[in-house]
Amino acid sequence: MLDSVGGLIHPSAIIEPGAQIGTGVKIGPFCTIGPQVVLEDGVELVSHAVIDGRTRIGQGAKIFPFATVGLAPQDLKYQGEPTETTIGPRTIIREHASIHRGTITGAGITRIGADCLLMAVVHVAHDCVIGDGVVIANNVALGGHVEIGDRAIIGGGAAALQFTRIGTGAFIGGLTGVTRDVAPYSRVFGTRAELQGLNLIGLRRRGVERAQLQTIQAAHKLLFHGGGVFADRVSQTRATYGTDPYIAEILAFIATPSRHGILTNLAGDAE
């Protein structure tokens, strides 16, 4: 092992001229680092990782064998434009995960937040935006331009259609196909995603007390399980429960323009 600024770099690693390596970085056997890569302080590449493109790996992140970060997207329109990838501090990327750089048809960047865990064989396509503290289990596939809010959990084998949004604190069950937007703090299961209710466990872990949980639950039931026209239910929920910060967040999510509409458990809802 070679010592570099307080870190360790294995002699078999290939680091292209121009790459920026912070202090205390560990680069294991047979890793490949491209010329525009930035590895911030304390990053660890266990072995056989490939980091390329205009990619920044945040402080203390850890990347396991055979993961690839910042490679060209699987988009036939991509012509080598100088787009980017960023990985937040302390995020863990496990074996065989693949994270592709952005495209000029999107924001030009694929972004993963801090303190995330991406388990083995996760695929994050171009222009995805993933918040902080997100857990994505094994074999999940995210299409291009997918957005995931902070502290969401995505179960193993799930897949999200391009341009879908998954809100803060949502829980997506294993093997679930997400084809419509999932509101914050919702719980979703099914081969084709079906809304089951609130992610009560996640809310309790956030310290939400029982009385507020009951309020959120009542509002969620009115919004997504009530009768009548969806737009009317949104107005009624805003008037009745809109001062609760969690409900306000859900209503703001619904108000944001959507490619695919919001997932409810009622066919024919207005979007």
Topology record:
Blueprint lengths: L1 E3 L2 E3 L4 E2 L4 E2 L4 E2 L4 E2 L4 E2 L4 E2 L4 E2 L2 E4 L4 E2 L4 E4 L12 E4 L4 E2 L4 E3 L8 E4 L4 E2 L4 E2 L4 E2 L4 E2 L4 E2 L4 E2 L4 E2 L4 E2 L4 E2 L4 E2 L4 E2 L7 E4 L4 E5 L1 H6 L4 H16 L4 H12 L3 H11 L16
Parallel strand pairs: 2-5, 3-6, 4-7, 5-8, 6-9, 7-10, 8-11, 9-12, 10-13, 11-14, 12-15, 13-16, 14-17, 15-18, 16-19, 17-20, 18-21, 19-22, 20-23, 21-24, 22-25, 23-26, 24-27, 26-28
Antiparallel strand pairs: 1-2, 28-29
Helix pairs in contact: 2-3
Written description of the protein model:
This protein has helices spanning 200-205, 210-225, 230-241, 245-255; strands spanning 2-4, 7-9, 14-15, 20-21, 26-27, 32-33, 38-39, 44-45, 50-51, 54-57, 62-63, 68-71, 84-87, 92-93, 98-100, 109-112, 117-118, 123-124, 129-130, 135-136, 141-142, 147-148, 153-154, 159-160, 165-166, 171-172, 177-178, 186-189, 194-198. The protein is an alpha/beta fold. The radius of gyration is 20 Å and the shape is elongated. Helix 2 (210-225) runs antiparallel to helix 3 (230-241). The model has no long low-confidence stretch (mean pLDDT 95).
